[in-house]
């Protein structure tokens, strides 16, 4: 058995049996891992409230047979407590955790995405995340997972999206008017939205107007749901909180 330590963000937890807990961790160097924490719900000394989503840990792990690991101890590095004090911040943060959990395969390292997640959580913690920041994070996360939707060019012919573009998750992004007959499931979108999304992908961080943000979120929700096979559960929570 291999013993090792990893910096990790707690993505989610699941109670198991009477006292144990399964913890899904996003580690910097080993990707997503499922760890078995024996007695975690009773032991105050070993874990001391560390096994909560939105916690950055130094995880002490042992590799086991199969697909799981054993979590022997966890040292808290950062708690992001300020995020837990405001419902809109909680909604954004939990959405980003779920997105990372669904996009990343087990044991597939994504160190750049790990760093990007921490950067975004710290922006939320400091109250510096702008209204378009969650969209920018989504685009970055999709790019790191190899699923970046295309907005700068038509996904079918490679030409400009044109004045009457459509968006087709099945073909990977924007589709120009000339190719729309080849993408029967594509939905009409404004050229302004396509240009704005392309600018966000290119690093532009100017906030989108509220109406445009809502349309952008609808597009990305449909794109993500298409690729993972379902809508993320935290999308409904964000809607209940009133976030576009």
What is the topology?
Layout lengths: L2 E14 L3 E8 L3 E7 L18 E8 L4 E11 L8 H17 L7 H16 L6 H12 L21 E3 L4 E3 L11 E2 L2 H11 L8 H19 L4 H9 L3
Parallel strand pairs: 3-5
Antiparallel strand pairs: 1-2, 1-4, 2-3, 4-5, 6-7, 6-8
Helix pairs in contact: 1-2, 1-3, 1-6, 2-3, 3-5
Tell me what you see in this structure.
This protein is elongated. The chain is built from 6 helices and 8 strands, in the order βββββαααβββααα. A 5-stranded mixed beta barrel has the order 1-2-3-5-4. It has a 3-stranded antiparallel beta sheet with strand order 7-6-8, with no helix packed on it. Strand 2 (20-27) and strand 3 form a beta hairpin. With 244 residues, the chain is of the alpha+beta class. The chain has helices at 87-103, 111-126, 133-144, 191-201, 210-228, 233-241, and strands at residues 3-16, 20-27, 31-37, 56-63, 68-78, 166-168, 173-175, 187-188. The N and C termini lie far apart (47 Å). The model has no long low-confidence stretch (mean pLDDT 92). It has 2 domains: 3-78, Nucleic acid-binding proteins (OB fold (Dihydrolipoamide Acetyltransferase, E2P), Beta Barrel), CATH 2.40.50; 130-241, Recombination protein O, C-terminal domain (de novo design (two linked rop proteins)), CATH 1.20.1440.120.
């Amino acid at each position: 058995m291999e013993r090792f330590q990893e910096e990790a963000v707690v993505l989610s937890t699941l109670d198991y049996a009477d006292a144990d807990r399964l913890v899904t961790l996003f580690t910097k160097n080993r990707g997503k891992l499922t760890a078995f924490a024996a007695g975690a719900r009773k032991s105050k000394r070993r874990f001391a409230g560390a096994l909560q989503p939105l916690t950055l840990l130094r995880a002490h792990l042992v590799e086991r047979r199969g697909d799981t690991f054993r979590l022997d101890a966890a040292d808290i590095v950062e708690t992001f407590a300020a995020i837990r004090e405001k419902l809109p911040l909680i909604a954004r943060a939990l959405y980003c955790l779920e997105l990372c959990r669904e996009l990343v395969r087990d044991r597939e390292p994504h160190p750049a995405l790990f760093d990007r997640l921490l950067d975004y959580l710290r922006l939320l913690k400091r109250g510096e995340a702008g209204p378009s920041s969650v969209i920018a994070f989504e685009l970055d996360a999709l790019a790191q997972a190899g699923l970046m939707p295309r907005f700068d060019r038509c996904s079918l012919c490679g030409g400009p999206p044109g004045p009457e573009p459509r968006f087709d998750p099945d073909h990977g992004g924007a589709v120009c008017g000339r190719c729309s007959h080849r993408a029967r499931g594509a939905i009409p979108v404004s050229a302004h939205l396509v240009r704005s999304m392309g600018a966000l992908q290119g690093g532009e961080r100017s906030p989108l107007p509220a109406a445009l943000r809502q349309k952008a979120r609808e597009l990305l929700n449909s794109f993500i749901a298409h690729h993972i096979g379902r809508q993320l559960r935290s999308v409904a929570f964000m809607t209940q909180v009133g976030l576009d």
